Amino acid sequence: MVDTSFLNFFFLGAIQSSLYKEEVVEAPNVLMKVTERGGAELQSAQVGDPLELRFRISDYESPYEIFVRDLIAKDGNDQTEISLIDSRGCPSEGHIIGPLTPVPGTNIFTLSADFDAFKFPTSEIVQFRAHVTPCIPRCKPVRCDGYEGGAHVSMDSYGKRRRRRSYAPSEDENGESKVLVTQAFFVSDKFRHGKKKRPEAARNVTSGREDFFQEKESSVLPTPSDICMNLTGILVAVGVLILIQVALGFAWNHIRTRINSSKCDERSGFPPNAVIFNPYDHHARHR
Questions:
Q1: How far apart are CA 95 and CA 136, in angstroms?
Q2: What are φ and ψ of residue 145, in 5° steps?
Q3: Contact at 8 Å (CB) between 45 and 51?
Q4: How far, CA to CA in Å, does 251 sit from each of 55, 222, 272?
Q5: What is the pLDDT of residue 279?
Q6: Which residues, in sequence order, are bridge partners of residue 54?
């Protein structure tokens, strides 16, 4: 038996990949919206109400994530504005609004930040404006410095707290493309309008102490009948005062006249009914 081996050489040439596919992905449409805590639709807002500011992509199949920066709030007259999130994506007014964090349990990438409703003295319209940067496949969070409970802490844009450590500010790692989004809503004062009825979802996230210290408000505006009665009472009181003053004037004038008459009689030395004899007048009669 002879062992025989065969070697076959084939020239295959350049191997082309069949898994390569090139596709252009369009930039996403980003929506900004003010909602109740928990995402419920906002019917109306009063100063101090707990609200949320949400950013999301409108396309459910979009591969993008989003990163928010340069968030400002302006009044309805474009006269006053405050910075809420700076150009790095960190909260610049931590006592007004917190960091933007992803909303869990949503089918599409959504960012939200909690805040209490506020308004400007010059207008009841509050406008939000922000630059949104789309990222693919993921947005890198930015770490922000802040104070919490008196301690200096650092947090990234997704709300994860870390221990303080020194770092150098990095360049923009989420790209240069920006989308400008705006949103405006109406905020009223609590002393102008009655307390609004909140949805059940919003009431569930509030503290139970609100039920114990629940306010009872009543209308203090006068009715038309009350206004008429008040005007009538004022007119009657003014008329009575005028009559009293006139009567006192007549009485004082009469008393003063009698006092002056008595003083004149005392000075002359004659009684009031005395007849004075005038000889010249007597001769004049007999002529």
A1: 32
A2: -90, 150
A3: yes
A4: 84, 42, 23
A5: 58
A6: 33, 112
CATH number, domain 30-205, options 3.40.50.620, 2.102.10.10, 2.60.40.4100, 2.30.40.10: 2.60.40.4100
Q: Where are the domains of the chain?
A: 30-205, 224-268
Q: Give the residue from 106, 112, 132 showing the smallest Cα distance to 53.
A: 112
Residue 241 has a pLDDT of 92
Average pLDDT per run of 10 along the chain, which is 287 residues long?
A: 46 52 69 90 88 89 88 88 90 85 86 91 90 87 64 47 36 60 86 49 37 39 56 88 93 89 68 57 51
C-alpha 50 chain-centroid distance: 11
Sheet strand arrangement including 110-116: 30-36, 50-57, 110-116, 101-102
Question: Which pLDDT does position 155 carry in this prediction?
Answer: 55
Predicted TM-score (pTM) of the model is: 0.51
185: Cβ–Cβ under 8 A, 6 or more apart, which residues?
34, 42, 45, 125, 126
Q: For residues 54 and 100, is the Cβ–Cβ distance under 8 A? A: no
How many Å apart are CA 263 and CA 269, to the nearest integer?
Answer: 10
* b/e 83-102 (16+ beta carbons within 10 angstroms → b): ebbbeebbbbeeeebbbbbb
Structure tokens at 139: 């947005």
Identify the pLDDT of residue 232.
85
* 265 backbone dihedrals φ, ψ, rounded to 5°: -65, -40
